[in-house]
Structure formats: C-alpha cells, structure tokens
Structure prediction request, 454 residues.
Amino acid sequence: MTNGPIDLDIFAELKDATGDEFAAELVNTFLDEAPGMIAELKAAADASDLEGYRRAAHSIKSNANTFGATRLAELARKIELGDMPAAGDFTDAKALETAFAKAAVALRTLYND
Amino acid sequence: MTDAPGHLLIVDDNKVNRLLLSRNVELLGHKASVAENGLVAMEMLSSQSYDLLLLDIEMPEMDGFQVLEAINADPDLRELPVIVTSSVEGLDNIVRCIELGAEDYLPKPVNKTLLSARVSSGLEKKRLRDEQRRLLERFATTEVAQDLQESGFAIGGKRANASVLFCDIRGFTALSENLAPEATIDLLNTFYTLMFEAVTSNGGIVSLMLGDGLMALFGVPQPLNNTAQSAVAAGHEMHSMIEMLNHERLADGERNLRIGIGIATGEVVAGYAGTDNRATYTCIGSAVNLAARLEAETQNTGSRILVDQETLDLLDGVDIQETFGGTQIKGFSDPFDIHAL
Prediction:
C-alpha cells in the first residue's frame, strides 16, 4: 500500500519497531536535515567534488529508505551510482529536491491524520 | 533477551541513522554512544572501552574502511567486534569490510531482528575473547598472551639471543615440613607474586614454575636491548623483594627465606611446544642448562647470583663479588669461569 511517495508498509514497520513518538521525532529530524544534505549535493556539484556529491546522495538514499520514501530513494541511488554532472548542472539535484518536497508533504500528512 | 547489556559505539555521519540505531540498540537493552565520523570514533575508543562497534562506511574526515584499518593496527582494539551497517553499493565493498576484519555486515535500513541477532553474537564473541585473555594472563604474562593470540597458537620456534634466569628457594622442602599445607601454598603464592613482578617489570617472562622455583626468559618472545642487563636487574630485584618479605616474616616470628639465582646468556630456540590442546612457551639451548646448573651451584658457593661469562660481558659497571675460574659444571665437558654478583 502506498501513499504517493511513501511506502506505508515500511513506514508502519518503522513505527512498530521504534514506537510512535520516536518515529515522529525521527521524521522531524529528517525533515530538518534533508535540506542541508541537498544543499551539500548542490555545493558538491558546483565544485565538481565527486566524493562529496556521492556521499550526499548516499545519505539521502539511506534516510529515504528508512521512511519508505521509495521514489526519493531511487533518485538518490541513481545519482550516487551515476556520473558526475558538469560543474553547475543542477538537473539531478533539482529533481531530488522536488522528490523530497513531495515526500515531506506526505510524511507530514501521515502525522497530521 | 538473554544478553548481558553491552556498551555499543555507533559511528555514522547521518543524524537520522544515528538516532535510529541508538533507539534500536537501546530497545535491545544495551547502552549506546554515538560518533559522527571515524576520527571522533577513534578518539572515543582511545579514552573508553566499548563492547561492540556499529560502523558506517561512507563518512567525511575518516571513513569506515580507515576506521577498520586503524582498529586492526591497534593491539588494544583488535578484538573489538565491528558490525558494518551501511547502504554502500557493491559487493566488493562488503567483501573489503570483511577482509579488513569486520565481524558482520548489515545493510541499511537495518532490520531489527537481524540487528538483535548480530549484536548478540558480537557481544558473545567479545565476552569469550575477554575471558580467553583473562585466562591466558593468569598463566602467562601479557606479552606471551598477546604473542599467543597474534600467532593464533601456532606451534613453531624461532632462534634468538636470550638470557635465562633460574631462581629457587633454598631448603624449601625442609621449611614446608613444619607448615600446614594451606600455609605452604600461601607462602608459594607470595613468593611467585613477588618473583613474577621482578621478572615482568624488567621485560622478562616466566616460562616455567617448578615447585619452589621458576625459570624466566629475557629477550624472547619480545626482544630486549640488553637481555643480560635486564636479567641481572631482575635478579637483584628478586633478592630485595625477599629481604622485604623476610622483614615481615621476622616480625611474625618466622624463619628467613633464602633464594639462589643462576643466569646464563646465549642463543636459544624458543617457541610453543606441546600439542594443539596443551602447549607451553618454552626455550631450548645450552644457556638454559647452564643457568639451571649455576642456580644449583649457588648452594656450593653461597652466592646470591651466579652468572656465566657471556652474561658478564654484556653488563655495564658491574660489581663482581667473586670469580670462580675454571669451575667444572655438571653436563658440560669444558670448565667455566663463573661470577658471583
């Protein structure tokens, strides 16, 4: 079962394993931290820093998987394994930003229901 | 859950991962500390001991591979079990972790049941290794215990220059006839505690305990700058310790203990000899026989310490009490010059 960007089974499993309150706190941490990771990805793309670029994508992928943000995770994984874009090419980073925004809305909705 | 609680260190540069892993570890009944990269983790490991490491691979400053290498290179940390938790891509990276000594690999997001099983097994391994180390240290010194663990108890030998020391309590059999069995063992325990201290504080190891005496090696398995100097220093320290013990014994109205010491230096073959089930670190060479004979000879000469010529030649600024030229030693055809210190 999915709620758009979020795989609800994975999300339920997370809540089940760690507790409702903790999962809510973890979602908030992710929503706070992710914009910083996307900023790091852009900065790395700007500076042609391959290692930093892959690490930022890797981090986002890892967290997206934790919350069942499948679409976001797929995109991040593609970036992690893909080639470095030309300096200043933010196409991938922007796609990732959009996917994150959608996942963020869905995650917030899950807690406001 | 049957585990005793352990203290785990979680190393991850991502805050969500750190929080989630800490939560999971705490829900399993263990204590969790966190580090945000490898450098911080190495600092924490050097100032406190942990039972298990949960290690991420992709990190700034110092990544997980570098942490595994640093842990491998540190004898104090080598036995710390490491479970790699990562969403790193590629089987070759996982293989590399295992080759670098990681106990296990758990893909992220970490499955709670798998984590529980791996943590239990990691903590159990740590407990067994600690137990093995404690047992080893009771019967051997730290150096031998470490050497044994590093060599994986390989039965093999090496040739080295070493000084061999034999020490024995004079007339112990007669002395113990007037003692209760418990008091005899008590006295031997005190004697061994003092003698072990004298040997190990001078870089030697006790390789054999023989009733009321012992054999100590200097220069194997750990090389020493001057094996003779170290052995003689240990010998003098043994005598001072016995004198201190005698002060106490006198106050309790008990008879003085007297010891004799023989030291010889030369090339020996040292290694673990025995079977796979029971091996002892031992040493073979004419210096071993000579040191044992010199120790026996102290009874005839009344000397505190007797050394052979090779030992004497290596000593700096030595105070010779007496030299017995051309002494015939049992088991050796040529006579020796031996020296009382």
